[in-house]
Amino acid sequence: MADVAFAVDLGGTNIRGGIVDQTGEISHHRSVRTAVRGGVYAIIDQIVTLADEVFEEFGSRDIAGIGVVAPGPLEPKAGIVRFAPNLPGWENVPLTRLLEERLQMPVVLGNDGNCAALGESMFGAGKNVDNLIYLALGTGLGAGIIHQGHLIEGIAGLGGEVGHISIDSNGSRCTCGGIGCMEAYIGGWAIARHGEMAVHSERSTLIREIAGEERISAEIVAKAAKQGDPAAIDIFARAGRALAVGIGGLVNVFNPELIVVGGGLARAGDLIMEPFRSGLAHYTMVPIHRHVAIVPSALETHTGVYGAAANVFYQRPDQLTSI
Ligand SMILES: [Zn+2]
Question: Ligand 1 center to residue 80 CA distance, Å?
Answer without folding.
Answer: 21
